[in-house]
Every structure is written in C-alpha cells, then in structure tokens.
Amino acid sequence: MAKMNYNGKTMLITGGASGMGQLYSERLAKAGARVATIDVNETGLKETASRHENISTYVCDVRDFDAVKKVVAKVEKELGPIDRVVSAAAIMPSSLLTEEPVDEIHRVMDINYKGVVNTVHATLPQMLERRSGQQVIFASLVGWMPVMHFGAYCASKFAVRSYADILYHENRHSGVQFACVCPPMVKTPLLNQVRSNPAVMEGDSSLMTPDKVLDAVEKGLRKKDFWIFPGQARYIAAFARMMPDVLWRNMHKIEGKKDPRLA
To answer: Please, what is the angle between helix 102-109 and helix 151-170, to 10°?
Structure first.
C-alpha cells in the first residue's frame, strides 16, 4: 500500500465515533490531513479525537440537514475548504421485516440514506464551484444482493448505491471525483447491532477487516474508480445480478436450517 500524504488537505467524515469512520479519521490525520469528524456519539468522538491532534470533532445528527449545513460551514471556517467528504454514518439492526418496528425501518433509512443525501448536498455545491474535491460514499455489497434478516439495511444501501450512481453520472465532467464503496461484511462495532441471530452471520472467518477496506478505498481513489469493491465483493455482486435465483435458493437453504419459516 502506497504511503498516503495529505498535508494541507481538509477531510470530513461522518460516522466517525466508531468503526470504519473512526479508523479512517485516524489514518487520514496521520497522513497529514485536517480531519473533521461528525457523529451523534459524543463519547465516541472524544475517543476519536484522542487518536491524533489533527482530528476535530463535531456533534451532529446527519438526519438533520440544517444541522449538517451549520457544521459544514463551521468546518470550512475553521479548517478550510473541504477536499474530501466520506459519508460513512450507518446503523445495521437485524430483524425479519415483519418483526421489525416500522419506526426502526424508517430510522435505518433516515441515517443510512438520508444522512448521505444531507451530507452530499451540504458539501457538493462548494466542490462544484471550485471544480475540485472528492465525494466518497459508503454503500455495501448488500446494496447489490438482498439478505434475509437485513431488509431495512439492504434497502437503505440499495438506495445509497442508486443515488451515488446517478449523482456521479450527472456530474462526471464537473472536476469532482465520486466513489461508491461496496464492501462485504466488515469486522466493526456495527455487527454488535445484529440481534436476530441470522445463520449467515455464524462464524466470522469471512469478515473483512476495516484496514483492508480502507486500503481498497485509497487504491480505488488513486485509480479514479467510481465503484470500489474491496476483496471479492465485485464478483459476488456480479453473481447476485446474473443469478439471483441461485442466490436466493442458497440463502433459503442456509437460513432454513435455523428457522423453518425461511426454508
């Protein structure tokens, strides 16, 4: 992995109080960037800030567009024009859709999808005006392949993927670089929200580490890739698109062993 050097650059990351966002904040700060990290988790933000002096933290709910705009204005005033935005804020509670409270399904969409929209629309106009900058949007492999027990999360990531795709094609000559990251399941605290005991989650030998995902992101950005599929995610997504019936038969077989309703 090539050594990163982002001296003088300003980066904004959402969901930076834990997991992928926290690690990326630390990595970019160590590479010389001025990092602004956004989250609603004040305790987690303090932990993130303690990891490097280049990290500044801002308590903000990405569901609130006005609040996001105010934070962005404050970041640009304190740290300078934002060179890269990383939309990584997300939640992933698991449940069968008929057993999941409707309010929770809406909450997943509000944070995972609406949060991306709010962050992009608060930062992209300035980048378009300067004709420079990077928008890095975290979707997921399950934005390509639906998985039982994760209906709300999958739906939100399908929405993120579609939004990012269209956004890129509408602005591909703007001077702004766009990337949509679609990792498989990753070993982060997000997995702690999985509560419905899906069979597909048994064992973690296939889970990807956050470092490998972020290495893939940096490599993809250097190559000017829009779609960034860490590890084998590209091939799994292609399989899901070309052979959905095979995918579903396998999924029913896996989940049906634990819950006959899903066989």
So the answer is: 30
* Residue 195's pLDDT band (cuts 50, 70, 90): confident
Report the pLDDT averaged over residues 133-146. Answer: 96
Distances (CA, A) of 93 to 97, 99, 178, 197: 11, 12, 28, 11
- List, in order, residues 6 or more apart from 43 with CB less than 8 Å away: 17
- List of residues 6+ apart from 22 with CB closer than 8 A: 16, 37, 44, 47, 48, 51
Strand partners, 38: 14, 58
Please check whether residue 5 lies inside any domain of the structure.
no
- Alpha-carbon dihedral 1, 207, 192, 45, rounded to 10 degrees: 0
- pLDDT of 218 strictly over 70: yes
Tell me whether residue 2 is in a domain: no
Question: Would residue 193 count as lying in a domain?
Answer: yes
pTM score of the predicted model: 0.94
User: 118 CB contacts (<8 Å, ≥6 apart)?
Assistant: 62, 63, 64, 65, 68
Report which of 163, 152, 138, 167 is spatially closest to residue 230, judged by C-alpha positions: 138
